Amino acid sequence: MIWLLLLGMALITFFNRYLFFSDLVSYSPSPKLRRFLSYSSYSVLTAIWAPIIFHFDGRSEIAIAGIDYLLAAALAAALSFAKVSSIVVVLLSVSLFFSIRFYLV
């Protein structure tokens, strides 16, 4: 039963994405929607790093992961705010993180 659910979800995801790339559907989003969607990569990147940096420690207080995490996240946030390419943001912030983690700590 679980395999059928996984296969069904995979098929739904595949066809949902395939329709936009095929010639079967002629769809072009409006300029307003394109502008709205242009922020999606930055919001997804923030949704990835924010819970890693700021988490609850079990006493209803927010804890910060560590200085290496915090500095790399601050760099990622600043570069994202400046609308730098997402791949550049990831590469630079990961480079800073590993530099701090393995060379300074």
Side-by-side strand order of the widest sheet: 1-2
Question: What structural class do you assign from the helix and strand content?
Answer: mainly alpha
The total domain count is 2
Question: In this structure, how is the largest beta sheet organized?
Answer: 2 strands, antiparallel
Radius of gyration: 19 Å
Question: What value does the average pLDDT take?
Answer: 85
Alpha carbon gap, first and last residue? 48 Å
Indicate the overall shape. extended
Q: What is the assembly state of the chains in this entry?
A: single chain
Which band does the percent of strand residues land in? 5-15%
Fraction of helical residues = over 70%
Total DSSP helices: 5
Number of E-state strands = 2
Which stretches of 5+ consecutive residues score pLDDT under 50? none
The topology string of helices and strands comes to HHHEEHH
